[in-house]
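hey m, so remember when u said the tokens were messed up on ur end? i reran from scratch. heres the input so u can diff it against urs
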Amino acid sequence: MAFTETFRCDVCSKAKSEGSEDWWLAWTEHISPLPGTEPTPQLRFMPWGMLLSHEADVRHLCGSRCAQTLMDRWMHSGG
């Protein structure tokens, strides 16, 4: 029996298909811009990568519109 893995966009719930090319991954990192300062959240984006797509804190995005929606929500939530 073959194993089928399905990813869905975390914004619109669209399923990722084999030929999908415009998918992105996003996650939040905490960085300290200067030594001794408190870490601040930073939203990161990168093109789809199978290994990173399995990480628990990574968001799956089906394209630029959903990436922009996620960024807008993140900015309004205070990071």
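this time it looks ok to me. The chain has a mean pLDDT of 92. if urs says something different then somethings off w ur setup not the seq
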